[in-house]
Design goal:
Elements: H1 2-25, E1 29-31, H2 37-49, H3 67-72, E2 80-83, E3 86-89, H4 91-99, H5 111-140, H6 147-168, H7 181-197, H8 200-203, H9 207-217, H10 220-226, H11 257-260, H12 265-270, H13 274-277, H14 307-316, H15 322-332, E4 334-335, E5 344-345, E6 353-360, H16 369-381, E7 390-398, E8 406-413, H17 419-424, E9 431-435, H18 441-451, E10 456-457, E11 460-468
Antiparallel strand pairs: 1-2, 2-3, 4-5, 6-8, 6-9, 7-8, 7-11, 10-11
Helix pairs in contact: 2-4, 2-7, 2-10, 5-6, 5-7, 6-9
């Protein structure tokens, strides 16, 4: 009898729990204005867990100031979620709440996955969204514009996108093999960046982040909320405002209008001191750029080897004669085929240049072909600043474990890896670098195999080759 009673009690509790959960899931009201990327976090999560969020008509500055709303959120901010149990505010908290209403894998499959989801939510919010807001909001008129602060914000955005790009070079999603809440919040955080700030030139430095972002925003659940996403053609720039007419750019920025009138401007023009007349650029609000430091590689003694000539020899030599002309020409010099000026490449100069082998340190990570290709491609795209002084052939190989080792050869101006590359390229420590003796016959044979893109490199299948020139 007791066992039967316990079973009935447990079943009744289960049914009541289901009823309560159903009641909750059918009575959720999200307060927000249209197009709020912070509200999208919860709305996209709702698409995945198959929960309907009621979004009533909302007028910013009126609805959120009403006594009824302030009872839900005394801050008067959106998004705010009204539930049968009470109100939830702060966009990430709302998204987490919605994501937990049904187990659809939005927190991964394990406790470790869940920790990684939280990690990437925090990273994208604090390290990307926050500095990106400091970059964007003054342009939109929500905050006072400060050029130095803008430059600092851009540096932070680039730095942290670089970290994310490196991670996504070997991951399709932020956690595991499917969309999680980390992806949802991360993509929402980056929406204004991709649609207002990141032009094509900016995006080229972060190909893996772009691939990930576009993969997400083209998922049905994202499209249902965000609509079609169009990438920015140019970076939104700050335009100094000269009067109250600019105020409609953001209703919430009205208190900032007096700051924009700049009543003290005439004083600047009337200062008689000659020293002030020598710096007219300051009156335009533009700081003079600091003189560019001289490229240390340009200060090296002249070399008989011209890097551009080598690159033309490499590019112009037909495949049938590649080894005979190009590889042999690297050591002995050669006439460049099809050169309109009959250009001659003088050959490798061991005094002015050095050759290095590299090998990716963590081949066990490289198990998906296209991700490995993206990893190498992203690395090469991020070092465009050293292109003038470097050449590389990077081979993606395949071993019998199903892994894709990465190995390559590099030619650098000077006897060391360029200092700027060592300082700014976070890919560099991921590779083992070995400076080689170019008089060694075995070294020359391996260089030849890499340049000729032979079917086998170091006994492994040569799957794909990427060239930096």
């Amino acid at each position: 009898m007791l066992v039967a009673a316990v079973k009935i009690s447990a079943e009744l509790h289960r049914k009541l729990t289901v009823i309560d959960q159903t009641l909750i899931m059918s009575n959720l009201r999200l307060y927000t204005f249209p197009g709020n990327k912070n509200a999208w976090k919860a709305q996209i999560a709702a698409e995945y867990v198959e929960v309907k969020l009621d979004v009533p008509a909302f007028e910013m500055g009126k609805t959120n100031k009403s006594p009824q709303f302030l009872k839900l959120n005394p801050n008067g901010k959106v998004p705010t979620l009204q539930t049968p149990e009470g109100a939830v505010w702060e966009s990430n908290a709302i998204a987490r709440y919605v994501a937990r209403l049904a187990d659809k894998g939005l927190f991964g499959a394990t406790a470790f996955d869940a920790a990684l989801v939280e990690q990437w939510i925090e990273f994208s919010t604090l390290n990307i969204d926050a500095p990106m807001s400091s970059w964007l909001y003054p342009i939109l008129g929500y905050m006072e514009y400060d050029k130095k602060k803008e430059e600092a914000a851009i540096v932070m955005v680039k730095k942290n996108l670089g970290i994310l790009d490196e991670y996504l070079a070997s991951h399709t999603y932020m956690v595991g093999n499917s969309v999680t809440l980390a992806d949802i919040i991360g993509a929402a955080n980056l929406y204004h960046g991709y649609t207002k700030l990141f032009d094509e030139a900016f995006r080229k430095d972060f190909p893996n982040v772009q691939r990930w972002f576009l993969t997400l925003v083209n998922q049905p659940a994202f499209k249902n909320v965000m609509g079609e996403v169009t990438l920015a053609k140019e970076t939104l720039k700050y335009t100094p405002k000269t009067g109250d007419k600019a105020a409609p750019a953001a209703k919430e920025s009205k208190p900032a209008a007096p700051k924009e009138s700049k009543p003290e401007q005439p004083k600047k023009e009337s200062k008689p001191a000659p020293a002030k007349e020598a710096a007219p650029a300051a009156d335009d609000g533009e700081e003079k750029p600091a003189p560019k430091p001289k490229d240390p590689l340009a200060l090296l003694p002249p070399s008989k080897m011209i890097m551009d000539s080598w690159k033309r020899l490499y590019s112009n030599t037909p495949g049938a004669k590649f080894k005979e002309i190009c590889v042999n020409g690297l050591w002995n010099g050669a006439d460049i085929p099809n050169s309109p000026t009959n250009e001659h490449f003088e050959g490798f100069d061991p005094e002015g240049y050095s050759i290095w082998f590299c090998e990716y340190k963590y081949p066990e990570e490289n198990t998906i072909n296209f991700i490995v290709m993206n990893k190498v491609g992203g690395f090469l795209q991020r070092i465009d600043y050293v292109r003038k002084h470097a050449f590389a052939v990077m081979s993606i190989l395949k071993d019998d474990k199903g892994q894709f080792p990465i190995r390559g050869m590099w030619i650098f101006r000077g006897q060391e890896i360029p200092a700027i590359m060592q300082e700014e390229c976070f890919d560099l420590p991921l590779y083992e670098w070995t400076k080689v003796d170019t008089n060694d016959a075995a070294v020359r044979e391996r260089i030849s195999a890499l340049l000729c893109e032979e079917d086998k490199i170091d006994g492994l299948e040569n799957v794909e080759v990427k060239v930096f020139k």
